[in-house]
Amino acid sequence: MGSNENKELRQYRDLSHLSVLIVDDNLLNQKILAKILSRSYIEPDFSKDGDDALLKCASKHYDLIFMDVHMPGKDGFEIVQYLRKIDNTAVILGFSADVTKEAIERGIKAGMNAYLTKPIEQETLFAVLNQYFS
């Protein structure tokens, strides 16, 4: 069996019980991430900016939040700091094309559980999900 066939047969864990929010001002990024997550039967909610994300988090508990770091208005760091202040317990994964050591440290300090690079690689993403939701 070729390695390609192996990939097709891979079983993704059913994580449909997770409530997930994707916060990104870029629609294409939202779609790509949602497509990857759909392999684990996750149907995420979306926010295109920080204010909308805060409203959604106020009315619903999320297990997992993907937080774009650079957005117009409030950036991802600010939102995460605020969510942690109000005791939001979601696993928050920051993501950005900016992967400098400073950005990553700032993300973790703000309260992100992990910081992923854009574009998010499927393998990396599922490894992180397994880490937090095993």
**Average predicted local confidence, pLDDT:** 90
Which class do the helix and strand fractions yield?
alpha/beta
Distance N terminus to C terminus? Answer: 29 Å
Strand content: 15-25%
Count of individual beta strands: 5
User: What about the largest sheet?
Assistant: 5 strands, parallel
Roughly how many Å is the radius of gyration?
15 Å
| CA-based shape | globular
* Residues in helix, %: 40-55%
Number of helices: 6
- Major sheet strand order: 2-1-3-4-5
Element-level helix/strand string: HEHEHEHEHEH
Give the low-pLDDT segments. 1-6
Write the layout of secondary structure elements.
Blueprint: H1 3-9, E1 20-23, H2 27-38, E2 45-47, H3 50-59, E3 64-68, H4 76-85, E4 91-96, H5 101-110, E5 114-117, H6 122-132
Parallel strand pairs: 1-2, 1-3, 3-4, 4-5
